[in-house]
Give the backbone structure.
Amino acid sequence: MASITLDKLGKVYAGNVRAVTDVNIDIKDGEMIVLVGPSGCGKSTLLRMVAGLETITEGTLKIGDRVVNHLEPAERDIAMVFQNYALYPHMTVYNNLAYGLKNRRFAKSEIDRRVKEAAEMLQIGQFLDRKPRQLSGGQRQRVAMGRALVREPAAFLFDEPLSNLDAKLRVQMRVEIRQLQKRLGTTSLYVTHDQLEALTMADRLVVLNGGRIEQIGTPMELYSRPETVFVAGFIGSPAMNMLPSDYLRGLVAAEALAHVPAKADLIGIRPEDLALGPAQEGALALSGRLLLLEPAGAESHLHLSFEGMADTITVRLPHVPDVAEGAMLNFSVPRDKLHPFDRESGKRLA
Amino acid sequence: MVENNRWGNFFAHLVLILGVAIVIFPVYVAIIASTHPPGTFIRGVMPLLPGPNALENYKTVITDGRSRAGTPPIGGMLWNSFVMAMAITIGKLSISLLSAFAIVYFRFPFRIFFFWIIFLTLMLPVEVRIVPTFQVVADLGMLNSFAGLSIPLIASATATFLFRQFFMTVPEELMEAARVDGAGPMKFFKDILLPLSITNIASLFVIMFIYGWNQYLWPLLITTDPEYYTIVMGIQRMVTGGDSEPLWHLVMATVVLAALPPILVILFMQRLFVKGLTETEK
């Protein structure tokens, strides 16, 4: 168990292609950090740099107190779970788990103890004699986890471990991985492109875009106070609505927007912050035509077009309203639920 | 889809049986010929039924050979052929596995260049480079030795190329997982790549063994000592050696015995081959 320090980490590939730029993260002992971002944002590269599978071209990486920039993956005291599991197809589950320990010359009895323990923990005890191809996707995922567990490493690295599973299993494994990680208290770095996975699993979340960190924070910090337009759009589903402030200023009484900095030309509103009905005192009043109503069981998504605005606006209600498509609907937004941004820099203002 | 048609079935089987018959016939004739007494063939008519001399003929080739024509007993030649074929096969497999491993998994200068150089040698079969190769082997003093028989035939672009193609289909994550698990390059090669290649190795083993076993021109050139004669060139010596008529009954007995080891290798490897097919999967 150890902290991990990423200090000004950067990766430049041959041919001067930049993948990662100036990444600073202090991962505390036992913390679960999730790296999230769209594909090509450098999150996997960053994880592989920590693992030692990619060389580090800039900055320093520390695991515990050791600088590990030039150490082999095996010397870094980390264990990794791969997206496609990367189980050794010709070995039994037992040998898959034991292989890393055998290479480290652990005593046979110790290997046996650890493998049995991990198998118990992951409920794969009855599969120990099987080959990976005789297992289902979820069971393979557990074996991949087990291979990381038996090593009792300083840190777990997860590279989109759930993306090959079906939706139901993904939720189940998500919970299990998180519980396991909390119980063991092992420092973890987890890469995903799924913002929901990121929100639910992370102690702290790192949003990456174009090889740079957009924002670091707890899931709720990022959700309630996104620092950039990118984070605002990436975290939360349906995505945050972005309205030009000129449009809003033309619509409503000035005092409703008085607290918004004059420079802000983009106002973000979360879909669930629009409440159906006439505006309360001091709230922002909006109205639009209902294009499409998507009932989703416990909640519903409304797609609206506002007069004079090209983009549609999405509203999320905690129930399915009794309204017809094509109707004009009124909404109210509390003043403190507005997220002001500067369009040019993409940064949050106030 | 092929329909399950009575006449179609009949016709298909007819074609298959004819094909098999055409292939089998020479083999059948060889086996029959090896059972007849010496005089049978001088009349120029090939018998199609077994003769009475089977045991005697085989006993002669195994124990005496054809000493007057300078052909030793067959056992030694079979052994020589076996040693040469095994040396070539194992040599080819190890060298091509290692070079394919190097080309696929290591980044070194001129990697692609070396790959193409290896690939280019495909265009140069033994016969084309036989004179310079002979010179080299003679200068190294390897005439009349097993080293001389096998080493020049060991380099194999075909096998290297096949293993390269196979290694490229092995997911890269396996190598990465092995690295994280503390396996160095050779350990990864031994523990993971080799077991995964077992099917390929088995089928190449069969092909290479037969290739080595059937070598004719090269052993003929570099061996003058009967102690190193291989069975295939021995057959040739039996036919042309000596002043008398070729003793076809003995030649055919030798041919039949010479064909046995490759067949045994195929039978044995096929079991491994099928086992490999059913037990490994990526």
